[in-house]
Amino acid sequence: MPDDSPMESSVMDVLDKQIVHALVHDARIPFAKLGGILETSEQTVARRYRSLRQRGILHVSGQVNAVPLGHARWVLRLKSTPDKALRLAESLARFPDLSWVTLLSTGSEVTCVSRPRSVERRDALLLHTLPRAPQVLELTAHEVMHRFPPDEEWPRYRHLFTAEQLEELGPHRSRPASAGPDVLVDLSAADEAMLALLGRDGRAPYAQLAAETGWTAPRVARRMAELVAAGVLYFDLDFAIERMGYGVRGALWLRVRPSDLDAVGRAMTTHPEIVFVAATTGPSNLMASIICRDTAHLYRYVTERLGALDGITGLEVTPSLRVLKQAQTLLDSDRIALVR
């Protein structure tokens, strides 16, 4: 049986990585079930999970997919002067509709993802708040037309499981649906309360969610399942990649021939370095997020993996100088800040 003592080091062992993969696969998997699959105790799994959270390595959150609610996702690129860019990024990180707020290595550009929950909030951000901000010199908004689902979610630890263990894990339950329902979903005040709590803690117990919403625990479970099935709710993990042994994070902005766009996007989802890839509007029509061990690894990826794909006519690589906010959490240096 693996050692169940808390790990003070930021290094992750095999059991930690197996727990991470299981959470990526099913963010709310019961620890008793996971302990049985990994042939260890429920208490050991729970202690390891708490250690990963306390060391600022990961955070599980429930996320709202705005597409089934009738709203698009946008990737924003904002140019500033070098002396104001960090202040701009810090301000953007406080916006609830913005995620993945990143200061690029140029020191004068910030990127973020906007997931507005209403047309009014979208217009307020894109037409009023950002254009009028004194730090913003230029704004480019790329609408996400299509997200290419990965064949395996990063950090790709599936190889640490046997075929029998993977079968016991069952179908993937955390990945956002690729398409929304035929009928748009309306969210009640109780739905919003549940989603807000899941945003802070994706593994919040049903009893806690019931107390927050005024529902019974069985009703919470049913409604959560309905929202997941509708593609409105999905679960995501934020990682402190430096504490996992990765030193380079960035974005790729590709120009691809329209006839090759789908093939290139699908091919990139099989690359271990790629975390996210989507077809977008704008001057580049394919955008991807990438994580590499170091700059040499990034160079090999660009020249060998991307270089082997037909149809790419242009590429811009923008390494991250600092990530201030991920999907849900703020980063404090190289660790995830505690979510309250």
Overall description:
This protein has 340 residues and is an alpha+beta fold. It is built from 11 helices and 12 strands. The strands form 3 sheets. Strands 2-4-3-10-7-9-8-5 form an 8-stranded antiparallel β-barrel, surrounded by 4 helices. It is globular. The two termini are 34 Å apart. Mean pLDDT is 91; it is low at 1-9.
Which tags fit this structure?
disordered N terminus; 340 residues; 11 helices; alpha+beta; eight-stranded antiparallel β-barrel; two-stranded antiparallel sheet; Alpha-Beta Plaits; Arc Repressor Mutant, subunit A; 3 domains
Largest sheet: 8 strands, antiparallel, barrel
Overall geometry: globular
Instruction: Please tally the helical runs, counting DSSP H or I stretches of 4 or more residues.
Output: 11
CATH architecture name of the largest domain: Orthogonal Bundle
What number of structural domains do the residues give? Answer: 3
Seen as an oligomer or otherwise, the chain set is single chain
Top CATH class of the largest domain: Mainly Alpha
Structural class by secondary-structure content: alpha+beta
- The tally of strands reads 12
Briefly note the CATH topology name of the largest domain.
Answer: Arc Repressor Mutant, subunit A
- Tell me what portion of residues adopts beta-strand conformation: 15-25%
What is the string of SSEs from the N terminus onward?
HHHEEHEEHEHHHHEEHEEHEEE
Radius of gyration: 20 Å
What's the average pLDDT? 91
Distance between the termini: 34 Å
What is the helical fraction, as a range of percent? 25-40%
